[in-house]
Structures are given as C-alpha cells and as structure tokens.
Fold each of these.
Amino acid sequence: MSTCRVCDGDVVEFLDLGRQPLSDHFQSEPGLPGEFLYRLAVGVCEACTMVQLMEEVPREKMFHEDYPYYSSGSSVMQKHFEGTARRFLQTELTGQDPFIVEIGSNDGVLLRTIHEAGVRHLGFEPSGKVADVARASGLRVRGDFFEEANAIEVHRSEGFADVIYGANTICHIPYLKSVFRGVDALLAPDGVFVFEDPYLGDILEKRSFDQIYDEHFFFFTARSVQAAAARFGFELIDVERLPVHGGEVRYTIARGGARRPSEALARLIAEEDARGLSDLHRLRRFVAEINDIRDNLVGLLRRLKDEGKTVVAYGATAKSATVTNFCGIGPDLVAWVCDTTPAKQGRLTPGMHIPIRPPDAFAAEPADYALLFAWNHAEEIMAKEQEFRRAGGQWILYVPEVHVAGA
Ligand code: SAM
Ligand code: TMP
Ligand code: ZN
C-alpha cells in the first residue's frame, strides 16, 4: 500500500515488474558501478481511481544534462506538434499579446511553430542538452522543473498564460499537486491547461505494459483526471483521443465553471465506466496477459536462436527497458538494437546491456528477424525499412500479443 500522490487515499498494488534500471540510462560499457535500480510496481487509488507507480525515482536521476530523448527524432511527431501548435494559434492564442507556457518543451518541437508565428512563449525544460537544442533555434527556455514556486515567479515577471501545455510530461510528474497549484498561479482566468499522455484505456486494450517505466508515474483516464482537476478548483472540459505513442488522450482543463464540458468528455467517461478501466479485477487480467506475453516472447526468441536465425531489435526506446529487463532478454537473444539517436549509439541498453548501433548497420548486416521495440512508430519505420522485408527479414511485435508481422 502507498499513499495517492493526488488525493492521499490508499493505493493498492496490482502489478510488480521487479527491480528495474533507469529506462533512459545508456551506459558506455558494462560493469560500470552504480547502475541505479528501483522497484517498478503499479497500483490504483481506492479513492480517486488514479493509477500510479508505487515507488518514485528521484527526478534528477531521470531528467538531467544528458537526458537522451529528442522529440524531433520522429517525423510523425514533428507533424503532430506542428498541427497542435497551429491549433493553439487559431483557437486560444488570438488575443492581444498571447502567452503560452510549455512544460517539458524538450528540443522545441512544438514551440518552434509558435515562435515562427511571433507569439510569446516560455518552455520549462530541466534536461540540459535537449533544452540547448531549442535555445539554439531562438526559443525561450527556462532550465527548471515546472512546479508551484517557479510558476509563481513566471507569473510575477510575465503575467498570465493563456495556454499551459505539456505533452508526454505531466504523467512524468509525481508532484502533481504542485503542478496544479502552479497552474493555478499562472493560468489566465479564461485560459486552458492542456496535456496529453499515454491513455490507460489504450494500455489495457493493447496490453502495452512497456508504457510502464520510471518516467511514466501516472496512467491517466478521463475519470481520474477529472477528479484530480476538481481537487484544485479546475474542471476537465474536453478530451480527445490521439493515435500517437500507441494511444493517448489530450485533456483540456479550465478553471471551474469557466467553460462548458464537451459531449466527447461525457462519452469517454461513460465508456470508461462500462469498461471498468480502474477495477482491480480488470487490472489483474492485464497482469495475466503481460505474463503470457513474456512467456511467448522469450519462447519465440529462444526457438529462433536454436534454429540459428539472427535477431536484432529496432528502437532503443525507454519502453524497451521494461520489456528486456522484465523478460530477461539480453544480447544472447537479441544481438543488437538499432536507433537513430546519436546519444544512444555505441552505448548499451539499460540493465540487459544490448549494444546499440546506428541504422546503417541495420541495412549493412541484414538480420532474419527484427524485434520492433519502437512499435508506436511502426508505420514510419516500416515505410523507411522496406528493403529489410524485401530481403526476407521479418518484424516481431509483442503487443497486443507476440506475433511475426505478415506471418
Ligand atoms: N514534450 C516532448 C514530447 O512530447 O516529445 C518531450 C517529452 S519527454 C518524454 C519529457 C520531457 O519532460 C523531458 O524533456 C523532461 O526533461 C521534461 N520534464 C520532466 N519533468 C519536468 C517538469 N517537472 N517540468 C518541466 N519539464 C519536465
Ligand atoms: P519513443 O518510443 O519514446 O518515441 O522512442 C523512439 C526511439 O526509437 C528513439 O530512441 C528514436 C528511435 N527511432 C528510430 O531509431 N528510428 C525511427 O524511425 C524512429 C521514429 C525512432
Ligand atoms: Zn487518489
């Protein structure tokens, strides 16, 4: 049992994925001292239904100078954020001297479009090198974690924000109370707080247990976000399902009573209630499904090894740390992983120490099978790696179940 980070209720554990390394910690050689481990376990709050990790990893261990995730690494995500920025420009940032604050602005993938439109902006980004990439293209980025004290300071010096936005970041922040208090200090009376994160409904449906890792502290639903917002004087007014990153929901929050809740919100809440998304017996079924995936995946990889097939992987994602460490998949089963991120290349995956190589190795040394860790980018990757299939290579996927693509 632990205490809910939103409402102080009791959190009941339903899943234990064991001791895990940091999902974005890529060592340069094996055996270096100090690979940090924590217990990756998930529970649900009996009072407010918020699904959350049982144990918190200190934020500085995850988000620091060398944080290796660059949002612009996917062209699909670049388009997604350009579209999102354009929508804000047309709908919310239309007054005199509008102002948008982004929480977790990373390499500037969203704020670039805002800046080009000449609109006032500020990114909060504690990870040094990714923030520097954004600054190099002229963006205003504050190298801090967003929390109450910093938000109050920004309000003092820059006034109210019309939009506060966070993509794939709010679910990373266990101190959600401080975030809401910060939003309360900084958001204009008629402004909106908008965030998008992996959706528990998609995770259960796709059995994408690899969305569970140190950085993903909360697994939101419309119901749990609605309850959280209400505790801080806000109101969830709209939801939008997004196809990115394996299925997300974009939540739009306004000050209580300021805007009318949408039909889409009522529909999603009804759907969640019908599916029993946060019921313990539903969550326990998910646990049984995860164990099956592990057994089937390891079984397939062992069989391919016995048959003398070569197997590599594609995408050294943070998600794959959970898969490899929970299933016990090391270089004996997957020879290496290819990834486009220079900061990951030449290094080893967390915990299981599979070597990471650049994508030209994928073309130069064709494997029989490629395990697609970056399955959320499947369309983009399969489109650019058509030669792999033409040469007889086959993709292995493990969500919603273990299968060989096209087989
Ligand atoms: N928004 C980008 C996207 O969707 O691609 C980046 C997402 S990345 C997974 C999460 C980012 O949030 C990291 O760059 C991290 O440094 C940043 N971050 C973590 N905690 C934060 C906080 N409290 N305030 C602001 N940024 C934070
Ligand atoms: P993500 O699932 O957290 O977005 O991480 C995707 C990882 O996959 C990231 O390390 C970059 C890598 N990647 C490739 O290697 N090739 C690609 O085409 C794409 C889209 C991502
Ligand atoms: Zn709670």
Amino acid sequence: MRSFHTIEDVHRAARRRLPKMVTGFVDGGADGEWTLRANEAAFDGVTFRPRNLVDVGHRRTGVTVFGEELPTPVMLAPAGLARLVHAEGELDAARGAGRQGAVFAVSIASSRSLEDIADAASGPLWFQLYLWKSRDLLASLVERARGAGYQALCLTIDVPIVGKRPRDLRNGMTIPPRISVGSALDAAVHPRWLYGLARGDKITFSNLVGLAEGDDAVALGTYVNTQLIDPSAGWEELEWLRDLWDGPLVVKGILTPEDAQRAIAAGADGVVVSNHGGRQLDGAPPSLEALPGVVSAVGDHTEVFIDGGVRRGGDVVKAVALGAKAVLIGRPWFWGLAANGADG
Ligand code: FNR
C-alpha cells in the first residue's frame, strides 16, 4: 500500500482515481463556496498556547460518548452514495471505521442498505435521518435501525431544500445526470473507477428501494426531492421522533445557541455544530466559530459534536479544546475510501 502522510496526499490520490463529475460532487459546496472555504480557514485561524516541560509520558485519545468508551474522538459523518467513489462504498467505510473503533454515522441516502452496513461493521453505528414528509417511512427506518443494532439516531435539520451546488450543475451531476461527450471521455480515462462502478448492482439509495416507481437513483432521487423533502418541518417533528426512539438522539446542523437550546428542549441528547460542510447555506458561519456559543449554551448537560473543515489531528485538538466532545469528518473519509477502500 502506498503511504499517505497528510490528508492532502489522500485527497490527491482520490482525485486521480475519480472523474471530475464525482470529484465535484464530493468536494463542492453551495453557491460561492464561501462557507466551505471558511470552515477550513477557521481552523487555520486558531493557534495553540503550548506549555512545555509538562509530563506527557501517558497520552490517550479516548473519549466517552453516551456512556460508551471510544478509542478516538473522530467519527465518520453521514454522507450518501459512497459507491460513487468506491465499489464497496459504505461497507468498506464501516470496515475501516470499525478497525479504529470510530463511530460511523450512516446516511439515510447510503448506497448500501443500513442492514448490510451493520453486517460489515465492527464498530459503533449511528443512523442519520431527515425529517421527510412520510412519518410511516421514517418510523419504518427507525425500526430497521433499531433491529440492525444502531446505537444512536442523528437527525439532520439543515436541508429544508437542497443547496445549489454550481460544480454539480456545471458537471451535469444532476437528477437525472447530464452526460456530455466530455464527461464520458473523462470517465473513460478513469478505468479503475469505471470498473468499480460496473461491478455489482446499480448505484442507488438502497434504504429507499421500493418507495417509487423505479428503484434506480434517478427515480428515487426524484421521489425524495419532489415528494419527501419537507420545507415546512418544525421542532414538533423532532418531539415526534423523540417519542419513537429511546436511545441517544443527536441533532445535526446546529449553528446558534438558540437552536441548540430548542433541540435539547425537544428531547435531543446531543447536537452536531455543522453547516453541512458548506453544501447547504452559503454564508452560514464556519462551524468552529459557532462552536463556543453552542458549548456555553448547552455543553453542561449535553454532548456537543462538530463537523466541517476538520482535516488533521491538530484540528481535532482545537475542536476538543473549544468544547467539542468529538468531531465528524465528511469529505476526508470519502477521499480515503476512493484512494484505498477500507484501508484508506
Ligand atoms: C454530506 N453530508 C451529509 N450530511 C447528512 O446529514 N446526510 C447526508 O446524506 C450527507 N451527504 C453528504 C455527501 C457528501 C459527498 C458530503 C461531502 C457530505 C454532510 C456531512 O455529513 C458533513 O456535515 C460534512 O461533510 C462535514 O464537512 P467536511 O468534513 O466535509 O468538511
């Protein structure tokens, strides 16, 4: 196996493996991508205040989350359609995360079913939901997650409508996709990726199969965007979900102390300070900047997590020093998966 020394090495290897359409989907953000850039820049803007000649002979990275000891404060953020970057998709992500004892938060939009992912996993799993219109569907997914042994639910609240992502529009990464001569040629010069894509079943939203007329990604994606997404969902929906699930419930997409307090009042056990990796509301504040306010508001009686722009160990330390219990990474695990499967 090639060795990677920094996340930038991994990112470069991933870019070599993937066509532009897929790279744009993974790496891109909403609108002018200001929030996307600001997430990483916020970490660069925080420095340490090192005190030396302190005994650091014993070091540990472990952390207790919802009563469970974890060896690392790094978790895999929910991100859909991982088979776009690697044939095994979320199965390899679960295998890789399990080897490190890292939590894997599985997306409702995963390309492998939540049950198959649970079978491949050896570490703790969370299941991520959106508050879509059909309560029957959500209730059945919660039941499936419970049956498959998921430990926590993660409710993402920052997608009232899907963000406008210019790279996807430009590259034809839309529903349905627009394949041009250029993108077909680009795919052809990435044979390893094409081979992975052709292996096995078609890539689709595996948890949602059976919902729409067709079971392919285009039919299901269209169904989600036209029938299920619910721009009018409110906090009472969270209370409904709370009644359905007695395990830990985490609300992802919090950027203000007020929303953190509302989430906790509605029954959440934890919050993820997140702007969806800059993929939703461009102009939203960088997560790291929003973290301290949320920690002061609810940190005493709840677990506060963060994602967006975490790229190296030092970033994890900065987030934890500013009050986060643990961090989630999104794009970095996609890059690792693309570059080298479960090992990546
Ligand atoms: C995401 N994200 C996301 N979030 C979520 O709650 N459900 C989802 O299905 C997805 N899908 C998704 C796909 C891809 C390709 C990416 C990159 C991201 C957002 C994700 O959970 C997380 O908030 C961000 O990725 C964190 O920012 P970084 O680590 O990518 O900078």
Amino acid sequence: MENRTKIVTIQRHIMEQQALLPTATGDFTLLLWDLVLAFKMISREVNRAGLAAILGPAGHENVQGEEVTKLDDFAQSRIFEQMDHGGHLCCMASEEADGLIPIPERFPKGKYVLLFDPLDGSSNVDVNASLGTIFSIHRKRTPGVDGSVEDCLQRGSEQVAAGYAVYGSSTMLVYTAGRGVHGFTLDPSLGEFLLSHENIRIPRRGKSYSVNEGNERNWDEGTRRYVNYLKEKDKATNRPYALRYIGTLVADFHRILLKGGIFLYPPDCSDPAKPKPKLRLLYEVSPMAIIAEQAGGAATTGRERVLDVQPTDIHQRVAIALGSPEDVREYEDFVQGRRP
Ligand code: AHG
Ligand code: MN
Ligand code: MN
C-alpha cells in the first residue's frame, strides 16, 4: 500500500498550488481550468485531423502574411470561445489576430490578460509531426475594466503563468505559475491530464542543438562561430553536439527542457543594417523563456535576458537562444565577442 502511485490531475495540482498563496481568490485557478479544456479539445481535433478532412490550408493568410491552416483557425476559435465569457480576462491577443482581442460587451471582464499562439508548428500539420499551443498570462495593469494594448505589452518577467501543450506521440501540458515547472500527460481514456513530470529541472549542459541550419548563410558571425564550435570534437563538453530540429518550437523546446541542450532562432542578417528575427516575443518566446528559467535554464536574445525585453508591439519578433544554462552562457560569449 505504501508504494502506490499517487495520481494527481492537473485541476487538483493547480488548485493545490494556488491554495499556497494567502491572497488567491480562486479566479486564476478557474482561468487555467478553462484553458485546459480548450487544450483537450484542440488535442482531440489534432489527433483526428486526418479523418476529419481538416488538413490543409484554410485559403487565406493571417495578419503576418503567413498561410493559415484549418487547424490554426480551429485552435484560434476554440481558445477564444472557451475564454471569452469566464469573467477572468480583460482582453486577449493571438498570433492569428491583428490587434487586441476584446472581451465581448455582454460578458463580464476580469483581471488577467491572455496571450497565445493557438497552433505552433503549422508547417508540420500535413505531415503528422508534433504541433503545440503556447500561452502566457499577465495581470491587468491599467485602470478601467477593458484591457488595452498596454496591458499586453509587459515584460516576460511579469508573467503570472505560462505554458504549452505539445501534441506529440502523447499530448502533454507543461506550465509554470512561478513555482517550478510541471508536466502532465493526457490520458485519453480518462480525458484527464495527469501529473507525469513534477518539478522539471533542465540539465546544466546538453548534447544537442536545435536550429534551422539551412539559414546559416544569413546568420550573424557569432552564431556561425558558435555552431561550428558545437561541431568540433571535445570529450569533456560532449562535442560534437547532435543536431535535432523539428520546426515546431514547442516540440524542439520540450526535448531540450527534458534532455538539455540549446534551441536557437537567430535573426536573418542578410541585410546587416536590419536584422530580422522570426519568433514572436509575447506568445512564443517569453512563455518559453520563463519556463526555461523556472526549470533552472536560461533564455537570451544573445545580448539581453529575454524576460527583461520591454515589448513595444503585440507581434514583435525577437532573436532567441534558450535551454541549458551552460550552453546559453557559452552562446552569449560567442555573440558578444568574448570568445574569438
Ligand atoms: P507558427 O506555426 O506558430 O507560425 O510557428 C512556427 C515557428 C516555430 O514553431 C518554429 O520554431 C519556427 O517557426 C520554424 O521556423 P523555420 O521553418 O523557419 O525553421
Ligand atoms: Mn508558433
Ligand atoms: Mn501559430
């Protein structure tokens, strides 16, 4: 009897974590519960996407000029419709929506802001590779009932919670609410996320790197030298590192969170006067950065801690390197010229 496994659902875990805070009202707990249900619905749809003939492009582009898939649309409306009426949010913002997403007039407003990437890894939709959803939650900081753009443009260090669902060989949900990082696996027969990875700690150093190396010719000099260094032979530092790249940030980061290593998306420097980063700060990079730090890892733009970057635009893009702390520090040494 003593050795029996204690089964903890995500609902119970969230509730117990919040109960540790003397000021908690239960509002935040209910907000996360609503989100969890949206993730279950997206997971179900992703799993049967081939059967439901939902694969393929939706036939229009999003605000950023990228082709939208039907699953992007599905995930966007699932989350919006699940989160618009609970009374916990004052506004939302998403990769798939132009500006701020207001809470409809007829519903009560709350004190939190939700930023999300409804479907991460869209280019993998048609090939049955892992996809994900990313979220970030901030507290409203402007006066008044309605949320504003300013409420969305907060530093990553001010996130109240962040996390992602990864729709892989099983569906997992990983989140932090500022007390470590916890992972849950969806048991489809129960329809419940069960605690499978308590208090995840990222290894101090890894053995692999993750980057779209096809872009090498457009990288900055520091990144190019760093990646070449990873391919040199050195027993003490496990080099050469292995290259692992799926092209879904959530899936690439999830592997690094569990196994260690570094994920990079450096800016396109083909015009050195105008470096162009790709990944979005508010709903892709910041949530991953706080999870990395909460697990003992690090996240940098190359020059600055990601969580310290002051956002100026909802869809702002930023350079990113994140993962094991020793790997990330080494990358910064190369980019900042401390390593020749
Ligand atoms: P999204 O599908 O939400 O637009 O995000 C795609 C992102 C991210 O998931 C991934 O890390 C990166 O784009 C892949 O980019 P490349 O295809 O340029 O490597
Ligand atoms: Mn994405
Ligand atoms: Mn997306």
Amino acid sequence: MTGPAILLLDGDGIGPEIVGATRAVLAAASDRFALDLRFQTATIGFAALDATGTTIDAAVIAQARVADGIVLGPVSHNAYPPVAEGGLNPSGTLRRALDLFANIRPAATRTGLPAPATMPFDLVIFRENTEGFYADRNLHLGPGEFMPDADTAMALRKISRRACRRIAEAGFAHAATRPAAHVTAVHKANVLRVSDGLFLEECRAVAAAYPAIRYEEVLVDAMAAHLVRNPACHDVIVTTNMFGDILSDLAGELSGSLGLAASLNAGSDHAMAQAQHGSAPDIAGAGVANPAALIGSAAMLLEWLGARRSAPALTRAGRAMAAALDAALANPATRTPDLGGRASTDGMARAVIAAMQG
Ligand code: IPM
Ligand code: MG
C-alpha cells in the first residue's frame, strides 16, 4: 500500500504559518517512521474567493473526498461575504460533505506547563458535528435561520436519532479504551425536553450496551461550573454540536490555553485535523502564531489513519508526535509568545521535530 495522501488547506490569517509548521512536523514523522506521506495542497478561504469566487469550490471538496486525511487551517469565515456571494464556511462545508460526524476534542493538563485548572485532568469531548444549531448544515435545502418579519429572527435546531446514536457510539467506544471508562452525556433536557430528550434516549441505549462503563448525565450549565471546579471528575463527554463547541473552548483554556486545543473531525471514511481556535488575523504574518493545536490535531489524524489502515507505524508516529509536542511545551524556551515564550512558529515546530527524533 502506498502511504496516505494528506491534503493541506491553509485557510486564512495565521493558517498558512501553522499549516506550514504542521507540514514540517508531519514530514519529519514520515521520515522517522517510514510513513511515505504524500502531501497535496488546495486553496480555500479569502485566497480562493479572490481566485474562484468562492471560499471553497467543488473541486476542493472532490480533492478532500479522495485524500486519506485532511489538515484544515483556521478560517476567518465570520468576515466572509454572504453565502450568495461565495462566502461558504469551509469548515462546516467539509464536515457536512464528508459526513465527519464526530468532532473529537481532547483537553488535558501537561506536566511542566502552567494551566488555569486547579488540578490535573484528562478528558475528551465527543461533539456531534453535523446538525444541532448549525444553520449552515442542519437542513437538506436552505439555511436553518430565517426572519419571518424584519424584527424577528428564528433558528432551527435539528436533533436526529441517527446523529445522536453515532456520536454516543463513538464516545462509548473511545471510553472503553480509557482507564476511567466513564461517559457523561451533557444536555439541556430540562428545557429542550423533546430534542435533548431524544439525545438522552440514544445515549442511554448505547450505555446499556456498555455495562462496564460508568454513565451519567449532567446539564450543560452545571457542566460549565463542574469543569472549572473539578475537571478531573470527567473522562469522556458526549454532547450535541453547539454545547460541544462551547465546552471544548472552556476545557481547552483550562488545560493551558485554547491555543493548545487539538481536534479531529472524524467520520466512517474520512478524517480532518483542525485546531479549535480561530485564524487570529491580528498576528498573521508575524511568524509568532502557536502551531501546537494544529500539530496536536495532525497527531490525532495519524493515529486515526493507523487504526483505519491497520498500520502500527502510523499509530506509533501519531503518539510520538503528541509526546514530542508535550516535551516542546514543557520547555519555556520553546514556547511561543502567547504562552509567555519567545519561540517563533517555526522554532516551535523545530523543537517538536527535535523531541520526536531524540
Ligand atoms: C469550531 C469553530 C467553528 C464551529 C466555527 C468556525 C464555525 O468554533 O470548530 O469550534 O462552531 O464549529
Ligand atoms: Mg469553536
């Protein structure tokens, strides 16, 4: 089998810098573990809007579909023109087009790296990624937001049995591999009785198939407080799209910084590495952006590819990359300025590569 084809999409703002750094680390991992990674590139975001009239065109989606894995840089989609003028959100578009239903977002404190959390913790959020309150992807035709009159705006939240079942199954299957083997379903079924009631029904059905896993349910507002007070009492969190979006930023920040928060968008056939943070246009081009979250996301992608292709070298490479990232972050001299260090984006990537080779 030839090595995996990895499609790199720069995105906007700091995207080209952190995708470049991530590519360098992936290339080093490829050499070190004989992975034979094949890199491909395509243009999305503002650069594509200028050239093709849309921030992500059909050819890029087709390229993503045939790639083995994707690395997506952050996008400035909040600043894009309306969809009718080509301003598609590349992140949502790819999540939907490739059916990347699980957004897997680990957050853990690291030895040697200061964190706002008052105690060490290690958790993973499994966020549903294809429906919920996401107006750009929750309807078959048309957006899930509209204005019945000039002074009223409405948003639809879609919760389907199938999507709830899939995210719960992914979360439980992962929890079964972790020592704590504990799943918390996060919801707001006291108010959203029907939709979050459906979500909980599916979580409970999956829980019944995993008697060895401790299962509990927590309201999303209470969960925000729990995460600040006692993050160590959570292991795998399964939740709907927008709750997961919000809680994962909280968990990432508690672990040290949102700038460290990695994520993998995974489906049955495709996976896309994507940092949780945005495109930070204020520091774009300065060479100081922190590439840690995207490097961590790319490590998750290698592990996913290792499992999918039954290729232990890819799994080992993913783990080695994550460990090398931890080592680089433990050293104040190799941290970027957002973490109080003086390393450049490339300097941080070089430190990760050196740790991986050492
Ligand atoms: C994320 C982001 C995106 C989301 C935005 C950019 C649409 O916040 O990946 O967490 O809400 O999914
Ligand atoms: Mg977010």
